[in-house]
Amino acid sequence: MVLSPADKTNVKSTWGKIGGHAGEYGGEALESRTFASFPTTKTYFPHFDLSHGSAQVKAHGKKVADALTNAVAHMDDLPGALSALSDLHAYKLRVDPVNFKLLSHCLLVTLACHHPAEFTPAVHASLDKFFSAVSTVLTSKYR
Amino acid sequence: MVLFTAEEKAAVVSLWARVNVELVGGEVLGRLLVVYPWTQRFFDSFGNLSSESAIMGNPKVKAHGKKVLTSFGNAVKHMDDLKDTFAELSELHCDKLHVDPENFKLLGNMILIVLATHFSKEFTPQMQAAWQKLTTAVANALAHKYH
């Protein structure tokens, strides 16, 4: 799956509009949405305080958002930009691949909630493709 | 609740009677760890998992595989009552073991494949369908108490 020039434009433009909210959205996508809708995802965080408003989860949401911001800035070379994270997920974290789809979905929902006017079907499709491409890179060294 | 037809139950029970649980259990778990290496994350204490032969020959893998498949045998005995049968194990896998239920689906498919390798032509599409239904239902029962 390849990101077209239009996809890249859509993703960059959306991310630009998010501005400084990326961290907050990351936290919302992760905590409020992913953990709530898909409780099985919490099995990867037994070492976290997962209560509502947890500082650990907020920080982790921001971490994920920052990594995505970096990915947006390097869409022409996702494998290069995400290489260290790819290693981490393959050799240490080993999060089952299905969970990337769950988080991606919740990121889309979060973005749709906060930016309904921008979240056109075309932008939605581009973002979905982008998250899918990122997920693919992150699971690319699994086996 | 999953409903199994009389034929499905008969098929499952008859095949199960011929399964060497110790042997098949080890193979099932071993294959899981080989084919989906990220599942090794739950077994840091198992020692050498560095190659296919290391995994398939690992005594801890074999022992644990036998344990898991023996428990699966309980499912065959209680096909009409899987959620209650696995309630405690479900809580254990959630609260203590922190296992993503996606792994239950992966393991279920390994069971099917190993049964196929052992029974080959006897593992007909109908036989597979019955077993597919059972492994899915067990996976769901084990995930049922997750919160």
Name a few traits of the molecule:
heterodimer; A: 143 residues; mainly alpha; Globin-like; 7 helices; 69% helix; globular; B: 147 residues; 8 helices
Task: Walk me through the topology.
The complex is a heterodimer of chains A (143) and B (147).
Chain A: H1 5-18, H2 22-37, H3 55-73, H4 78-81, H5 83-93, H6 98-114, H7 121-138
Chain B: H1 6-16, H2 21-35, H3 52-57, H4 59-77, H5 82-85, H6 87-96, H7 102-119, H8 125-143
Helix pairs in contact in B: 1-8, 2-4, 2-7, 7-8
Basic shape of chain A: globular
Runs of chain A in which pLDDT lies below 50 for 5 or more consecutive residues are none
**Percentage of residues in strands of chain A:** under 5%
Give the oligomeric state of the chains in this entry, treating copies of one chain as homo and distinct chains as hetero. heterodimer
The poorly predicted ranges of chain B are none
Q: Most extensive chain contact?
A: A-B, 15 and 18 residues
- The residue fraction in helices of chain A comes out at 55-70%
Helix count from the secondary structure assignment of chain B: 8
Provide the CATH top-level class of chain A: Mainly Alpha
Helix content of chain B: 55-70%
Strand tally of chain B is 0
* Total number of domains of chain A: 1
Measure the end-to-end span of chain A: 19 Å
Radius of gyration of chain B: 15 Å
* Integer average pLDDT of chain B: 94
The CATH topology of chain A turns out to be Globin-like
Q: CATH superfamily of chain A, please? A: Globins
Order of helices and strands of chain A: HHHHHHH
Largest sheet of chain B: none
What CATH architecture of chain A do you see?
Answer: Orthogonal Bundle
